[in-house]
Predict the 3D structure of the following.
Amino acid sequence: MKIKKAVITAAGPTQQHLPLQTLVSPSGRTKTVVAFILDEIFASGIESAAIVIAPGTEKAFSSAVSNHLDKVVFIEQATPQGYGHAILCARDFTGNDPFLVMMGDHLYLSLAKESCVRQLLNFASQANGPVSAVQPTHESKLPFYGTVAGSPVGGIQGLYEVSHIIEKPTPTIAEQELIVPGLRSGSYLCFFGIHVLTAPVMEYLDQAFTEKEDLPLTPSLAAATKSEKYLACEIEGLRFNIEESYGLLRAQLGMALSGEGRDEVMGYMIELIAATRR
């Protein structure tokens, strides 16, 4: 599959302001979170992106996307009805094409030569169905993530054909249903927050939508395992959820430590730790 479109969700009540926060890049430039996301998307070969926003926020987002405004469209999610519904709002934009999905309150730092998005797109280019980025994750963090089970795809390191998905499982359920051969004991494949989705997944979301309750993404991905070859690929990188406590600080530190000023930043950190030690 060739992926040319992306959808960024940024309409949730706690999510809509976070993409507008600013950080300093490893090269020293100050940019908004959404500009960082768009930089990574377009550098990976994506040609256009839809940002799903809350009503009344388009002006703020238009100012925050930096020099990408000509490649971005804004789609309002009139009422916050879940992650799956936010994606479904972009159905007219995605049409019958496969597309990348990212969350507006997550940033990524690659530990490989290629960006986290590019790593996922490399796997997706050889696939014919949805592909989700995953990482081996300790069982103590299972309450925060969707988790998959599957079998390794022969000859391709870090690639799995998904057979089962559970949203935020308990360790007991994970041990019973989500063991993946080759992973360390107590570790499971959890969603990394980046997906390549297909038109059939959009159809599943549309069928599942009801105005009476929130629409998650995971059940529609689970449905995809019945009709499409759904893959999960391990990503070499770090994820920063800026909605978490100190999430923005962690993202800034990650970027600072990956830049040319790493030694200087380390020195500041040591001085600060020593000065505030009690």
